[in-house]
Design goal:
With about 120 residues, this protein is an alpha+beta fold. The chain has helices at about 1-25, 55-70; strands at about 30-35, 40, 75-85, 90-100, 105-115, 120. The protein has a 6-stranded antiparallel β-sheet, with helices on both faces. A hairpin with a 2-residue loop joins strand 3 (about 75-85) and strand 4.
Length: about 120
């Protein structure tokens, strides 16, 4: 599972970079590793061009947990664009929630900085 987990994190970061370079932000999205090792990106459309992030997160979590419970996928992740505040400084970051089986497995917060044609991720 560790290999799938790291693979998911790298794919999420690549997807986030594409969104950030294009728009400077992104709505929550996800990716999963299927039963046979295939990588599948997912997103949600809730009938509104500007949906609330919490609604998207709930929708994605529910869909992924159902797939995990049914044994359709091995591991899944959701990416959320967040702001981390430390003292008086705020940093852009991506929160990656990783799910295995039908339960929450891990959460990572990775700071990022958008540069001209690259997003630099700062992992601790």
């Amino acid at each position: 599972m560790g290999t799938d987990k790291e693979k998911l994190v790298q794919i999420i970061k690549a997807q986030a970079q594409a969104f950030l370079l294009d728009a400077g932000e992104f709505y929550p999205f996800g990716t999963y590793v299927g039963k046979n090792g295939e990588i599948v990106p997912i997103s949600a459309y809730l009938g509104d061009d500007h949906p609330a992030s919490l609604d998207l997160i709930e929708f994605l979590e529910k869909a992924l947990k159902e797939k995990l419970a049914n044994g359709c996928i091995r591991i899944a992740a959701i990416a959320i664009d967040i702001l981390i505040k430390e003292d008086i400084t705020a940093y852009d970051a991506i929160e990656i929630r990783i799910y295995a089986n039908d339960n929450f497995f891990d959460k990572r917060k990775i700071r990022y900085e958008i540069q001209e044609n690259l997003v630099h991720f700062f992992e601790s």
